[in-house]
Amino acid sequence: MSVFLSLFLNLLPLYALIVIGFIAGRFLQVDRQSIGTLAMYIFMPVVMFGFVADLDFKLEYIALPFILYAISTIVALSFLKLGRKIYGDNQANLMSMCASMGNTGYFGLPLALLFFSKELVAIYIFMNLSSLIFEATIGYYIAARGNFDVRTSIIKIIKFPTPYAIALGLACNQSGVELPEIFWTYWTHFKGAYVVCGMMIIGAALSTLDRFVFGVRFVSLTFAGKFVVYPLLAFGFIALDQHILQWFEQDIHNLIMIIAIVPPGANIAAFATKMNLQPEKAASTILLGTVFALFYIPLVVWMMGIGL
To answer: What is the pTM of this model?
Structure first.
């Protein structure tokens, strides 16, 4: 019970931001597409550049983003194929995104701060590069393919700034370039704006709904991917590492599970809004997943003894 209450209280501010986004969209006529564009094309690249430029790389952790990227890719492509058989329209693209893209930033980072030391949180941020790169590549491509042909989708990926920001951050990191203090001052502001806008996107998208868009089959399949298949694949790798590979310690295994059990990512709402990929259904599914996570995550944390 103490774990549940502690987690619940730490997550309340995130839910408050969703409510603020709803109020802003419903009563202040805030445009959800404008918020999504700011989050994706302005705040995200700056924030990711800063994280990558300041990381303390360790050779033994290089494999982690690749492992998590592979898991996300397996889930995304599997549920895209399944969705095309069931729906035959862009609902398949949305389902694939919701099953494979987790809220590792807005939701997962507070969890990491709650359960782990500062050093492990730094490793979590490095591992989270897998989610960011996945969103900027396969995730963005799947979103674009919901409404555009292959050529147009590839062009949109090329124009997406986050991969270039990550590459520039790696170049600065490895070359030893010292960024000025004023950059970090404003980077902190961008990081806060990224979190605020990211969660408000969900509320702003919901504010335009005349009714709650809920499909039992769609939500069931999405939850099966995000809360069952993804964690099982992550746990499978952990079991393999514990008994055969022996690459990582238990703390790293716990970080992997935190990334695996977060709800569908808030950025899905931004992608769906930007690509006109049934944004109301996307926001409704993300909200349901976020509410479900209040009960699901404490159960998994208790079962695995994470942070206890």
So the answer is: 0.82
Within a domain: residue 82? yes
User: How many independent structural domains does the chain possess?
Assistant: 1
- Give domain status of residue 236, yes or no: yes
Kindly report the CATH number assigned to the domain that includes residue 146: 1.20.1530
Nearest residue to 227 (alpha-carbon basis) of 88, 79, 92: 79
- Whether 60 is covered by a domain: the verdict is no
Domain that holds residue 166: 2-55+66-304
Each residue's pLDDT, cut to its tens digit, for the chain (308 residues) gives 676 677 777 778 888 888 998 899 889 888 777 887 888 889 888 988 888 888 777 777 889 999 999 999 999 999 999 999 999 888 999 999 999 999 898 788 877 877 888 778 878 888 888 888 888 788 888 887 776 666 776 777 788 788 788 889 889 988 988 899 999 999 989 988 888 887 888 788 778 776 677 788 999 999 999 999 999 999 999 999 999 999 999 999 999 999 999 999 877 877 787 777 888 888 889 889 988 998 898 888 878 776 55
- Round to whole Å and give the CA distance between 162 and 158: 10
- Cβ-Cβ contacts under 8 Å for 180 (sequence gap 6 or more): none
**Spatial CA neighbour of 205 closest among 271, 139, 136:** 271
Residue 268 belongs to some domain of the structure: yes
Query: Helices marked H in 28-88 — which ranges?
Result: 32-38, 44-53, 63-86
